Amino acid sequence: MTVAAFMELALYDPEYGYYARADRRSGRAGDFFTSVDVGPLFGELLAVQLAEMFELLSRSRFDLVEAGAGNGRLSADILRAAREHHPAFHDAVRLHLVEASAAARAAQAETLGDGRARLASSGAGLPAQFEGVLIANELLDAMPTHQVVMRDDGLREIYVEVGPPSHDPHADGATKTPCTIEGQLSTPALQAYFDRLGVALQPGWRAEINLAAVEWVRDAARRLRRGFMILIDYGHEARELYSAAHAAGTLTSFLHHRSAGAESRRDDEPPWLRRPGEQDLTSHVDFTSVRAAAEAEGMDAIAFLDQTYFLLGLADRWSATALAERSGALKTLIAPGGLGSTMKVLILGKGVGRPTLKGCAFKVRAT
């Protein structure tokens, strides 16, 4: 099977998938740490940007769609801040939570608390149509991706197969261990992807091609009648992602807050192949292709910047007292080398022109 098919099963199988078996995977007790885990500040700052977008759209009803919503913690933080500081925006919100995990969806009402009164829908798929803002925080990096490697005779794809019996003396002799093999491309779309970008890998370089992320953005852009899209994730422009700096590829796993990338003993048994369904799998986002997919569906790219500058722009008008009360959390969210520079923010608009947004007021820069 392709690496994308393996990831689909390992992460999203309804019974055994990593995300399907729990309503929450991040935080100190989980396997990785997100901006939402820092505390409510991330949602409070996003509420500032969303309230401005609400005013720009001039609507009495405002669809707020959170994709990859988990148990709804981020939306709960946004709604609490909106109710206190942006009441007109709060009262106009129709919340749509999109989450593949049934366990996480079941926990959303409790997580939202009083905010569940604003909940219009909760399901595994995006609303058929909406007008307002779609937020996706650390969603695209967890979508199943193909992995390829360049050889002297051309581009090859990495596949997962069940290998020979395990040689572990403590394992059942019939136990099979998965391994990777190389083969012909499963679809010409993989070579076409690089052709569009003008990318040429050097022999020996590995890379991930996330066709699912590109198609998801296209679909979301079609469903958005008018409004904005805020995509927050870790990744790079294509020229950086597909370069010598990432010649080993970026696909990795996380378990107990540790990346297993450095633990590989054999090229055909990478760490991300181990313990399927028990660890997170992720790869960096190609923001060049994501942006192009949205633009092909009539959206305009408004900004691409580090989370550091995005959040500083939103906090810029807060009082010194308010900032002091939140200084610890803010430092964590904007720290260089941490969430601040690792996480990128892509803001897209449809039918709204190219407004100067508060989140872009401090400095527009992607490192």
Write the layout of secondary structure elements.
Layout: H1 3-12, H2 41-57, E1 62-67, H3 73-85, H4 87-92, E2 93-98, H5 102-112, E3 119-123, E4 130-137, E5 146-151, E6 154-165, E7 176-183, H6 189-197, E8 206-209, H7 211-223, E9 224-236, H8 238-241, E10 252-255, E11 258-259, E12 280-282, E13 285-286, H9 287-296, E14 300-306, H10 307-315, H11 320-325, H12 327-334, H13 339-342, E15 343-350
Helix pairs in contact: 2-3, 7-9
Structure notes:
Helix 2 crosses helix 3 and helix 7 (211-223) runs parallel beside helix 9 (287-296). The two termini are 36 Å apart. Helix content is 33%, strand content 26%. It has 13 helices and 15 strands. Helix 5 links the parallel strand 2 (93-98) and strand 3 (119-123). By secondary structure, the chain is of the alpha/beta class. Strands 1, 2, 3, 4, 9, 13, 14 and 15 form an 8-stranded mixed beta sheet that branches. A 4-stranded antiparallel beta sheet has the order 7-6-5-8. A 3-stranded antiparallel beta sheet has the order 11-10-12. The model has no long low-confidence stretch (mean pLDDT 90).
The string of secondary-structure elements, in order, is: HHEHHEHEEEEEHEHEHEEEEHEHHHHE
Overall geometry:
globular
The end-to-end distance, rounded to whole angstroms, is: 36 Å
Mean pLDDT: 90
Oligomer: single chain
Helix content: 25-40%
- Total count of strands: 15
How would you sum up the major sheet?
8 strands, mixed
Q: Approximately what portion of the residues adopt beta-strand conformation?
A: 25-35%
Structural class: alpha/beta
Please, how many helices?
13
Which residue ranges are poorly predicted, with pLDDT under 50 across at least 5 consecutive positions? none
Radius of gyration, taken over Cα atoms and rounded to an integer in Å: 21 Å
